[in-house]
Structures are given as structure tokens and as C-alpha cells.
Amino acid sequence: MGKGFFISFEGGEGAGKTTQIKKLAQYLESKGHDVVTTREPGGTPAADALWQCFIDQKGHEWDVLAQTLLVFTTRRLHVEERLKKDLAAGKVIICDRFTDSTRVYQGIAGGLGLERVEQIKQMCIGDFEPDLTFIFDIDPKIGLARSERRNNGKDTFEEKHIEFHEMLRNGYRDIANTHQDRCFVIDASQSIEAVEEEIRDICLKNLI
Ligand code: TMP
What we know:
Elements (H helix, E strand, L loop, with lengths): L4 E7 L5 H14 L4 E5 L5 H12 L7 H25 L3 E5 L2 H11 L4 H12 L6 E6 L2 H12 L10 H17 L4 E5 L4 H15 L2
Parallel strand pairs: 1-3, 1-4, 2-3, 4-5
């Protein structure tokens, strides 16, 4: 069994990741890949339960180190119990959010700092990183309007001020610059079809 392949989707609120994850999974399956989709924070029953606790207890208002420790607890469970096994079985994993979300939400916009995030990351999951990351870039005003329509109200980090969401956008662009080996910035204001095509092209060059 060959080594699998790990793809993550990243971006601010309402960038359209969910739709594109479904489309890419179907496409890669049609090409004969064994595909699994998953999401963070969560991905195992215990990790999902911890994230539900974060939501119920308004975790977005907690001290940022506490937020970071909780998401890395969920991430370690996900990596150890699920992702490493799927990769060893040769699967293509498509994950909605991964460590880049912590780098940007807690490290940059939340103010913990990237160095602290990297220290905690090393302790929890070592060098485990996606092979390929799509960063969905969109004006936060458009993204927030989309996700509010979807959720019928505000959810966790969505209720933060617009400056927080601008920091997320700039943070993601910085991450893309410092991790050019795996990160591709996608203009998420394009049509669903145009985004889908761009993602397929990048996958064809990197995976198939
Ligand atoms: P989502 O279901 O819309 O992706 O919501 C997950 C929320 O959690 C989103 O606001 C981003 C946030 N988040 C963090 O703050 N840190 C993390 O490490 C992850 C994975 C998500």
C-alpha cells in the first residue's frame, strides 16, 4: 500500500470550503482514489465532544493559550487515531481546516504569536503537516455575509469585529508566503465552477 496524501482547506468564515471539498472528493474518487473527508476541530468522537464544549462554553472568549491547548488536544487525537492510519492505508485525506487555522486564528489574530503555536504544535503532532493546502481568500465582509445566511445568525469567531477578520485574511496570506511548498491561494470570490477548476488543476499537477 502506497503512502497516502493529505490535503487541507483553509480560509476565513464563509469562503466556500465545504462546497469545494465535496466536489474535490467526488472528482478524486472518480479518478480511482480512496478518499476520506474530515474536519477540524474534531474528527474523532472525543475531539468532536471537546470542540462542542468549546462552542458551548464560548471558547472564542477564552484566554488564547487555553484555546490553543484545546484545539491541539483535539488535533492530536485526530492525527493519532485517524489521520496516520488513513495515510498508512494509502488514502487521500481531505480535511476542512488544520494547523494553519490555529496559526492564524490563535497565533496571529488572537495574539498568541506564531512561535508559541509552533512550540505547542511540535509537542503535540511533531512535523505532521498537509502535503497540499488550499487557502480560500475572500473579502471578509462578503464571507461573513455568506456564513451568516448559512447559519441563521452568528457562530463562534464570526461575532468578532471586522478587524479580526481582516487579520485572518492577512495572516493566511502570510502563511501562504512562508509555506509556498504546499500552499496555494485561491480567489474564493470567483464562481463555484472557476474555483473547482483551479483546484482540480492544482491537484492534477501535485497528486495525480
Ligand atoms: P467552521 O466549522 O466554520 O470551520 O468553524 C470552526 C471555527 O473554529 C472557525 O471559526 C475557525 C475556528 N478554529 C480556530 O479558531 N482554531 C483552529 O485551530 C481551528 C481548526 C478552527
